[in-house]
From TrEMBL:
Name of the protein in question: DOMON domain-containing protein
InterPro entries named in the record: DOMON_domain, FRRS1L
Residue span(s) of domain DOMON: 271-398
GO biological process: regulation of glutamate receptor signaling pathway; regulation of postsynaptic membrane neurotransmitter receptor levels
Native source species: Strongylus vulgaris
UniProt cross-references to PROSITE patterns, sorted A to Z: DOMON
Domain of life, per lineage: Eukaryota
Length: 456
């Protein structure tokens, strides 16, 4: 804000409503502004002579102005800065005026219906017999990719506190067992976007632990009360989260959308350990790691080994070193064998682990992310996926110390497997993965012949 030409529809104190030109001066260029961008009046008629076929009205609480602006004349008189070859941000503002001009105002967002049906989908309430939703309630949505949706929510309100507008997602048109996204102010709390849930009785309930994921799942947020409306918009991660009972690790997609290792017999017990993985395009692996959580400095890790013993193994871990938060990291099992930190690994973790979701709540540690497994030129100890190699998966959990992972308390070693295919140690034909992990021909004759193929 600052050094901008302004077109305003205003009624200064004692004057009729009209279109004018003004200017926002950069606060750093004039000490009288105290460092804040300030709107200045222009001399003379403030450019009114350059507005042709002008209309200005105030009806039913709405200020309206329209005109054709002679841009060339206004620029020549030094009243307007404009170039047809530049891109501009449009800064909308409203507020009161006085004899000296417009008072301090805020640039505020609003619900724009023009893109509805074009760049975004919209529901605009009409308050009819078939739809009792009050006029002015609206939601828009724009799918950005498979993981993110941009939402807007708006509703009439007489107060910035104690109000809400929400959208729920039902498969049968009934408000039972449905997730919800809301723009709300609970009690006297500030207005914000949140996740909530309608239970089996149709009652809206809070989701335990939802606050812990809100800032990472709801980003680019705007939440305002203005002109008798509450308005929220944000980019929402729509992948779901294991933070609540309504969104947990989905074992039903194992061997369909993803491969899973869910052991039930482990050294010193399994401690709820599990891992899922899915090889995607461009050397990206989608991974989930989880275990029981009973301390602040724990870890769950998976090693990728060429044999069934610990030593010289790539490791992906979800851990909290003492006095640190849980995060996904690369580490390495050396040939001693011991787990070691990789020098400077922390400089690449944010770019190699994306769309991370880490939940340490209610006795469960759950971590998921998209992982770049193409390797790192600065260290051979960072996992480099080889599609032609069969890996043993070494699952381990335990506690951390200042140097890294302590000796594991719980361990499990899987059978060897290609990460983009089936368990190669099995002597049985796996019909379950036909059509998902591999192509199959299965004879319907009595000889029960079958063949499968997989392009690698």
């Amino acid at each position: 804000q600052g050094d901008e030409s302004v077109i305003e529809c205003s009624a200064l104190q004692g004057e009729p409503l009209s279109l004018k030109l003004s200017y926002n001066i950069n606060g750093t260029t004039d000490s009288s502004t105290k460092g804040e961008p300030t709107n200045w009046r222009l001399s003379g008629n403030q450019g009114t002579e350059f507005f042709l076929n002008s209309t200005a009205s105030f009806i039913d609480g709405i200020v309206y102005c329209s005109a054709l602006l002679n841009i060339t004349g206004a620029i020549s008189d030094g009243l307007l800065k404009f170039s047809p070859f530049e891109l501009y941000y449009l800064l909308m503002a409203n507020g009161p005026t006085d004899a000296n001009g417009v008072n301090i105002s805020m640039i505020v967002p609003g619900f724009d219906t023009d893109p509805c049906g074009l760049s975004k989908g919209c529901f605009l309430a009409t308050n009819t017999n078939t739809d009792p939703t009050p006029n002015g309630v609206a939601v828009s949505y724009r799918v950005m990719n498979n993981s993110f949706i941009f939402f807007e929510l708006v509703a009439p309100s007489s107060s910035k506190t104690g109000s809400f507008v929400a959208v729920s997602f039902s498969s049968n048109g009934i408000l039972f067992n449905t997730p919800s996204i809301e723009c709300s102010s609970l009690g006297t709390d500030a207005l914000s976007m949140k996740f909530s849930y309608y239970d089996a009785t149709g009652t809206n309930v809070r989701i335990p632990g939802e606050e812990s994921i809100r800032q990472t799942y709801i980003t680019q947020e705007t939440a305002v009360f203005q002109d008798g409306q509450i308005y929220c918009s944000a980019l929402v991660n729509s992948q779901g989260s294991s933070v609540s009972d309504e969104a947990t690790f989905d074992a039903s997609t194992c061997n369909v959308d993803k491969s899973c290792v869910l052991p039930d017999q482990c050294y010193r017990g399994c401690n709820g350990m599990g891992v899922s993985y899915e090889i995607l395009a461009n050397s990206i692996m989608k991974i989930e790691l989880f275990s029981v959580l009973n301390a602040n400095n724990q870890y769950i890790a998976v090693g990728f080994s060429d044999d069934d013993k610990m030593g010289n193994d790539y490791v992906i871990e979800c851990s909290a070193l003492p006095n640190q938060r849980y995060s996904l990291k690369f580490s390495y099992n050396d040939n001693s064998p011991a787990n070691v930190r990789i020098p400077s690994e922390e400089t690449i973790s944010s770019s190699y682990f994306t769309q991370s979701n880490i939940i340490a709540f209610d006795g469960e540690l759950y971590c998921s992310a998209l992982v770049n497994v193409s390797g790192w030129s600065q260290s051979k100890e960072v996992f480099t996926y080889n599609p032609s190699q069969a890996y043993y998966l070494l699952l381990a959990s335990g506690f951390t110390n200042d140097q890294g992972l302590d000796i594991h308390k719980h361990t499990f070693v899987s059978t060897p497997r290609f990460l983009n295919g089936d368990d190669i140690s099995s002597n049985n034909f796996d019909y379950a993965t036909c059509g998902t992990k591999k192509g199959c021909f299965i004879s319907n004759k009595a000889n029960a012949m079958a063949a499968s193929y997989q392009v690698r």
